[in-house]
Each structure stands twice: as structure tokens, then as C-alpha cells.
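Continuing the series of single-chain predictions for the mutant panel. This is the parent chain; the variants come on the following pages.
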Amino acid sequence: MPQLIASVEGVEIKHVYLTKDRTTLGRRPGNDIVLDNLAVSGDHCAFELHGLADVSVEDLHSTNGTFVNNRKVVGPHKLVDGDVIAIGKFRIQYLAASEQPSNFSATSAMKLDPAAGAGDGVKHASLRVLSGSSAGIEVPVVKAVTTFGKPGVSVVAISHRRNGYYVAHMDGDARPLLNDVPIGADPLLLSNHDVLELAGTKLLFLWKE
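Parent structure:
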């Protein structure tokens, strides 16, 4: 999965795995990545995740600018594996993919929630809970990448691509199952009525065209 490794003078200070559609960086506490330094604007830049691995960075009209490989970013800039982003004295290396970490720290994880908001997707996909007290609840899958599960236990990411929906294991020691087969970090194409199992909870994938 895509990741950012931030350092100052060669010393690593932050390591972030990109799981959200949009990850913001800045000095303000409300950002996903907070760099408390006067060279960093309150809302400095944002990283957009497209699918599971394509990432672009955009400067948010910062005072000192955002640079990729020593070139100032103007508008959305697609990142390539190994790119180095410079913000003041901070250097942030972008890695397009990595092995599943043993101590994963995601920027966010979405729990199963009957109140999860729906959106206008091109195709209507959802997960129906089959077991437990929440059985029967349907959770819409409407973002380019949506995470489901229990952080630290078992989390999967479902990504929407042109040819369908894919699922991959993102976090947790409990290996999720797809039709009783363990899911790894490599994305697997989902079919209508596939059954996912996350830490004992069974979910039915529904794809309504």
C-alpha cells in the first residue's frame, strides 16, 4: 500500500500509510499529518489516493510551497515510487507499495456502521451483515477506497476500479476470508454475493448494476 516516510536531516519522524481518499498535511492539529514547524502552513498540502496505489499531491496555497524532486508543485502532481517531497526542512519519501507491516498505523479506518453515509456511485455496491446483532444491515461502498473492520484486529480495503471492486487485507493479525479463503495484501476481484469474514463477522458483497 502507498506510504509516506517523513524525516528531518535523515532522522525519520513519521511513517504514514495512505488509506483515505484524501490525506491532508499541515501545521494545524486537524490535519491527518501534523508537522509542527513554522515553515509548514496551517493547511499545507493534500495527498489524493486513486484506487489502491495511485497517489497525487497538491499544494494548498501554502506560504513556502511544496516541492517534488526539487520542483515546485503547481496543481495536482502524480507521484512516482521513490519521489521525495520537500516542505521546508522536512523530506517526505513516497513509496508506492510495501509489505504488510506488523504494526500498522492507518490514517483512518471505518467501522461497520448502519449510519454510514451513502453517495452517488456509478454502480451500487454494499456489504450486508450476515451475522451477529447487526445482521441485515447494509453498509454502502461508495468511495474509491473504503476500509471496513476493526482497527488492530482485522481491516480490509475495498477499492472501486473500472472493471469492478477489489478487496485487500490492510490491518490486523486476524486474516480476513473471502469465500473461506484467506485474503492477502494483493487485491482480489469481488463478485456479486461473495462472502467476506472479518474477525468472525460475515458480510455479503452485493453489486447492483
